[in-house]
Amino acid sequence: MATVREAARSARPAVPVYEGRLGEDDVPLIFRVGAVVTFVILLLPAVIVVLAGLNAGDYLTFPPQGFSLRWVWEFLRSPTFRNAYLLSMGVAFVVMLISTTIGTMAAIFMTRVRFPGRSMLRAYFLAPLMLPGVVLGLALYVFYVTTNIGLARTLLGLVIGHVLVTTPYVIGTVSAALYNFDLSLEEAARSLGAGPLTAFRKITLPLIGPGLLAGATFAFIVSFGQFDISLFLSTPNLTPLPIAMYISLRYKFEPTAAAAGVFAICLVVLSMLLTSRLMNLSRFAGLKFS
After folding, report:
1. Which of 36, 257, 277, 284 is the most core-located residue (most Cβ within 10 A)?
2. What 3-state DSSP class applies to 67?
3. Could you count the other beta carbons within 10 Å of the beta carbon of residue 87?
4. Does residue 63 have a cis peptide bond before it, meaning omega lies within 30 degrees of 0?
């Protein structure tokens, strides 16, 4: 019997076993070239905005007519752009807190509770990602006006609109972090006397922290740069940065808008670097941040 087993085992095709991580030489050349081309395409618009913001000319042109910090200082001195930048940061921070809280609770509920229609509920939560921003912004504005609930052209109505757009990002990242979560860890904590909130705070939250922080970062960035929703829901006296840039490009076409874009890009980069330092995102995304 042992001879038959050995013969059968020797007849099986050999399966290559890879030890350790794949090196750079193991990645096909076409994949590496495609990654570089994709990176350049994604980065090129940001580089153009930065160069246009450092333009020494009087109009927004590319290639720039020399380099100068003239329009950067003009952005810092402009009360319109400065207030719009601070307003966008404040709204994005509030939206991040609300979206992270709602999205985390929704993700936990949909990943742990099995009930009829769970897939439909998940699709309902993720629907704002499928709808064009113009359609969603117009729908919210019409809803606010027709129902006469006092949210049309108010700061609260704007925050609600941003929360609808950013919550699906949190649900997606937190759901991914909860997908392979071992519930026996929470059960062990409960068996040792920890309450539900204590077990969640000391066991679950640290383990899903990378996904939660990634979703919060996405929510902040998406809210900060949200144009479609803000176009319909922003207040007359409180203008977010994307709307202020749009108005400037429409009537003046000065490089001040590009300089504002430089500060927006810096904020996004800083938020990503801070997130990568605070949390080990490599556990969540399989990436290494140096």
Report:
1. 257
2. strand
3. 21
4. yes
Q: Please, which pLDDT band fits residue 256 given cuts at 50, 70 and 90?
A: confident
| Degrees to nearest 5, angle at CA 116 with 216 and 136 | 45
| Residues 6+ away with beta carbon under 8 Å from 230 | 137, 158, 161, 162, 240, 242, 243
- Say how far apart CA 81 and CA 110 lie, in whole Å: 41
Cis amide bond preceding 255, omega within 30: no
> What pTM was estimated for this model as a whole?
0.77
Strand (E) positions, the chain? Answer: none
Domain boundaries, the chain: 43-285
Q: Are 214 and 173 in contact (CB under 8 A)?
A: yes
- Residue positions counted in the chain: 290
CATH of region 43-285: 1.10.3720.10
d(CA 54, CA 60): 10
> Is the CB of residue 174 less than 8 Å from the CB of residue 109?
no
